[in-house]
Amino acid sequence: MKATILSILSIILVVILVIGNIHWNIRSESPLSTIHPTEGENTEVENKEQYFSLDYYMSFAKSWPDSAQQVLEDKLTDKQPFHILLVGSDVIGDQELGLVTPLQEALASKYDQYVTIESITYDETSSDYVNDNEYETLIAKKPDMVILEPFLLNDNGVVDISTTLINLNQVINETTDDLADVTFVLMPAHQLYNAGLYPMQVNDLQKYAESKDIPYWNHWEAWPDSKDPKVQDYYNTEGDKSKANEQGFELWSNYLAKKLISD
């Protein structure tokens, strides 16, 4: 009897071992049996899949002109960069001290490589700019958005404001003839203390922008009032010319950065 029971138990044990071995082999061959990634690995995979988000980038452009937002969306859809061009007299500064470098850093921190910005300057009057066909340099850059300081301080006392606006109109028309989807944004140069003619020129520029439905970014809102002596702390004067200093460019570029990057 004992021998019979032992034989039965031996057979059962062998069957269990065989079934267990077959099950293990099947499990090992199945893709579902591979090691599951850890939570951190899952996150990394998801991040790689979601590293490009149209909505993410577009959320920063809420303060952009509508036309520029549309072009940005089209560019992002094709994963192509959107190009911004700063144009003005020397008052907008250069790479070492000016608007473009802090804006490059700010844009790269949010839009990565998908929004770029550079600058070109021309240190003569708006009439010289038009007569020299300097707008061709602008057009050659093929910008999607132009932020233009239309040489008001260079024109001050030399070119009357009505002629400045005619010149500005020609620059815009020449550019849009070649670049149909380009967006123009106008802005004044830096604030000045207790100036006479200059604020009137700036006021006329703003009225022109409104009449043409051109966005006008009034960074003077961020400066001390022109009647406040403290405004002199934000620019330097050399002879009959003035230019924003480090404090002035910081204030000015911060204003533009907030326009280009919504919270």
UniProtKB/TrEMBL annotation:
Q: Looking at the record's lineage, which domain of life comes first?
A: Bacteria
**Stored SUPFAM superfamilies:** SGNH hydrolase (SSF52266)
Per its UniProt record, what InterPro entries does this chain match?
SGNH_hydro_sf
> Would you tell me the protein name for this molecule?
SGNH/GDSL hydrolase family protein
Organism from which the protein derives:
Niallia circulans
